[in-house]
């Protein structure tokens, strides 16, 4: 039993990218004496969990949304579910670097003790890493995630994302795009490099494929500068020049660029006609006012300046696009005027990964569950403070 995780890990390394669920099933049955297993993946809206091994079950996602699997996914903790015959279903989160992929189900003949649960948790971690890597080599897991066909623009936007969440001792970060299957131009990007977390949120102009192409050019220009060790100013200016010389000022992209020193809480920012930045400190929500500069690509050789502000340990920061802030269905007041603060306060006890979903659900409810008229992005950043530096 001690070598169980090693045996499963070896089986995953040797498996074809599209056969990880089957390889894990065989190896877990052998290593842990499991009766059966299943792999559930979260859909694009994180509204349900859907099986990989038997994706044709019509009610699987709806059932998983309301059952023990969803409790495991939300809590990010192993959950045991005893059966009448003495067997036990063990649900384990499939998570890598804070990115929540889904849930692994292992059905065992008896209730597992701490040692078996620990082995199973290690196996789930190995499977999550393998699935994240395999996603570049197969479409199987992406097909399981989608509940309807994505538009071409949405396909490009989801492929461009760095992920939907990331966790570190010093911070937690999560983001969500809506409408998930037709999103066009709004986007977010991030990168962790040493003590520096870089986060950008784009309020894409227009809709459909044209908006997605504009966003792709902008994001890749900023990445090019960032990966060449360029700071926020270089990232903004290269992206602005690239968009301008492509469209001669006819198209531009409102963008917020942030760089967080994860150990001090100091944030450097370039507000290029940006999405909206709000800070929640305790139960108090307040907009953070930055000096707005020109959107990227509006004029040739636009130059940008950096501003700074300081976070306190425990601060939560939201960045939302105009599709969230300015939403005013059926002539009602803009969502950001009063309702947004109420939605943000409702997330106070939730982790960042749950908070973005709560805000999006509240936004849909504000629209009376009708289709959103504009793209919407919500990004949530929790900074825990310097006490986390050494794992304390």
From TrEMBL:
Domain of life according to the entry: Bacteria
Matches recorded under InterPro entries: Bact_Sigma-Reg (IPR052016), PPM-type-like_dom_sf (IPR036457), PPM-type_phosphatase-like_dom (IPR001932)
Example of a GO MF term: phosphatase activity
Record bears the keyword RNA-binding: no
Stated name of the protein: Stage II sporulation protein E (SpoIIE)
Keywords noted in UniProt: Hydrolase
Phosphoprotein found in the keyword field: no
SMART domains membership: PP2C_SIG (SM00331)
Pfam families listed in its UniProt record: SpoIIE
Residue ranges of every copy of the PPM-type phosphatase domain listed in the record: 168-383
């Amino acid at each position: 039993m001690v070598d169980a995780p090693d045996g499963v890990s070896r089986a995953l390394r040797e498996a074809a990218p599209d056969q990880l669920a089957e390889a894990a099933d065989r190896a877990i049955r052998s290593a842990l004496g499991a009766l059966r297993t299943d792999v559930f993946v979260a859909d694009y809206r994180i509204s349900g969990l859907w099986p990989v091994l038997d994706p044709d079950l019509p009610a699987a996602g709806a059932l998983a949304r309301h059952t023990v699997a969803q409790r495991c996914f939300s809590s990010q903790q192993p959950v045991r579910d005893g059966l009448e015959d003495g067997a036990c279903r063990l649900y384990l989160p499939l998570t890598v670097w804070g990115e929540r992929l889904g849930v692994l189900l292992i059905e065992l003949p008896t209730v597992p003790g701490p040692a078996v649960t620990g082995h199973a948790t290690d196996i789930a971690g190995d499977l999550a890493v393998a699935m994240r890597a395999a996603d570049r080599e197969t479409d199987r897991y992406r097909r399981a995630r989608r509940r309807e066909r994505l538009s071409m623009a949405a396909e490009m936007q989801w492929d461009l994302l760095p992920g939907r969440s990331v966790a570190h001792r010093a911070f937690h970060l999560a983001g969500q795009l809506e409408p998930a299957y037709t999103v066009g131009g709004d986007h977010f990007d991030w990168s962790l490099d040493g003590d520096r977390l870089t986060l950008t949120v784009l309020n894409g102009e227009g809709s459909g494929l044209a908006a997605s192409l504009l966003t792709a050019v902008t994001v890749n220009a900023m990445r090019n500068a960032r990966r060449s060790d360029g700071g926020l100013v270089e990232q903004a200016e290269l992206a602005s020049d690239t968009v301008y010389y492509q469209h001669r000022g006819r198209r531009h992209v409102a963008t917020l660029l942030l760089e967080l020193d994860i150990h001090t809480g100091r944030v450097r920012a370039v507000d290029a006609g940006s999405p909206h930045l709000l800070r929640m400190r305790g139960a108090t929500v307040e907009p953070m006012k930055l000096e707005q500069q020109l959107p990227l690509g509006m004029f040739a050789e636009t130059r940008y300046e950096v501003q700074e502000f300081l976070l306190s340990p425990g601060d939560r920061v939201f960045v939302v696009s105009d599709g969230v802030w300015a939403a005013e269905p059926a002539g009602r007041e803009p969502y950001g005027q009063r309702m947004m603060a109420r939605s943000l306060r409702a997330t106070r006890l939730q982790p960042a990964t749950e908070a973005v979903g709560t805000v999006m659900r509240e936004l849909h409810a504000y629209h009376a569950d009708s289709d959103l008229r504009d793209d919407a992005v919500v990004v949530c950043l929790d900074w825990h403070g310097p006490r986390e530096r050494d794992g304390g």
